[in-house]
Amino acid sequence: MREASIGDLTDGASQDSRPFTSVAEINNFPFETFEQLQAAVAIRSFNVGVDALAAAKWSDSFNGKIKKAVVTALSLLLLAAALAAIVAAFITGDYWLIAALPIQAVTFYTSHPASPIRKWITVAGALSVAAFIDLLLNGFLIAATLVAYAGLTFAAVRAAGYISNAGFRKAILSDEKLFLEAYGSGECTVRNNQSGRVYSA
């Protein structure tokens, strides 16, 4: 492992356009071999972060059948829940239930791991459980249902994102060529968990 210069202001930003053939070629990178990176991640002194959109694209093409099936099932669950809200609204005559659809749409967009407000949505997602219970116990059934829709959407999106991200991260940490391609195209970063420093192309 080698130390980067204290005076460096960027990590890899000045690289030329040619593809990397080994981690040793990455300017200011904290490791000389891919095996060193793998070992550092294994003991959790470093972490590899992945781009959520790149992970989703990789997952669609290369993830295992079971994991793909789970992600598909989560998507179908949200669609079924939306349809159920529409049907229930017309059967009961309580058209506030239709508000579940825009609530799902907003929650889906903001819950995505790539969302700029994902940290706040994480807090909101956790609080939605308490809000649901409170509204339900106080007899606000429709409000509790709408909160439940937001919580369900949040959980489904995060679960699907976790499966995709974990699969992509595992793949690039098991194949140096794939890691170099992902790192060079900005689809992953390397973070020093002790200093907080992030290395990116």
**How would you state the average pLDDT, rounded?**
84
Structural class category: mainly alpha
How are the strands ordered across the major sheet?
1-2-3
Helix count from the secondary structure assignment:
7
Helical content (DSSP H or I, runs of 4+):
55-70%
Poorly predicted regions are 1-16
Radius of gyration: 21 Å
The fraction of residues assigned to DSSP E strands is 5-15%
What is the distance, rounded to the nearest whole angstrom, between the alpha carbons of the first and last residues? Answer: 18 Å
Order of helices and strands: HEHHHHHHEE
Shape: elongated
Give the beta-strand count.
3
User: Biggest β-sheet: count, sense, barrel?
Assistant: 3 strands, antiparallel
Keywords:
disordered N terminus; 201 residues; three-stranded antiparallel beta sheet; mainly alpha
Walkthrough of the structure:
The protein contains seven helices and three strands, in the order αβααααααββ. By secondary structure, the chain is mainly α. It has a domain of 111 residues. A three-stranded antiparallel beta sheet has the order 1-2-3.
